[in-house]
């Protein structure tokens, strides 16, 4: 139960996993040799900016996953064995992110399609696993404030925007190259807020209609 020390220990464990995964990202950034620091042009030719770009991207991704996990766990009154297992699976995919980040951030491999596809698959599986964790808890009656079916559908639809975009980017990368696949990810800057807005508007409209019919 949420009031027990076991629940707090579990949350601390997951928080540590996300924090450690973010920390591991810096291992993908190779320190330039001493002579590369003599001027900016030489420094840029080392490819360190590309590695820092991968670091920044995955830092944001893992931070977002952590915030989503915190938000979902707040809606759970307890974590039984099934919910804990799903949360561990989600955490495992998050731990893999530093590894797949290496492929898309290293100048020697970033141009290949496979690293981009693997990174996209990693993010997709992590996102779906987090959603599955909450749906497992909901199915087992562990919500603190049970949602209606309509509210849950809205949550699911909002949550699948990210994995959907990353899934689409896999064939794009394999067919048209790594850069095309990565550009697909940028669509989330528009689709993410747009889908959330549309779903909230629809939920509000349906709620108003329900209130009107009850009066």
Largest beta-sheet characterization = none
The secondary structure category is mainly alpha
Residue runs with pLDDT of under 50 for 5 or more positions: 211-215
Helix content: over 70%
**3D shape:** globular
Oligomer: single chain
Number of strands: 0
Into how many domains do the coordinates divide?
1
Radius of gyration: 20 Å
List the helices and strands in order.
HHHHHHHHH
Mean pLDDT: 87
**Number of separate helices:** 9
N- and C-termini, Cα separation:
39 Å
Strand residues, percent: under 5%
Describe this structure in words.
By secondary structure, the protein is an all-alpha fold. The protein has one domain. It contains 9 helices and no strands. α5 runs antiparallel to α7 (161-176) and α7 runs antiparallel to α8. The chain is globular, with a radius of gyration of 20 Å. Residues 211-215 have low confidence and may be disordered.
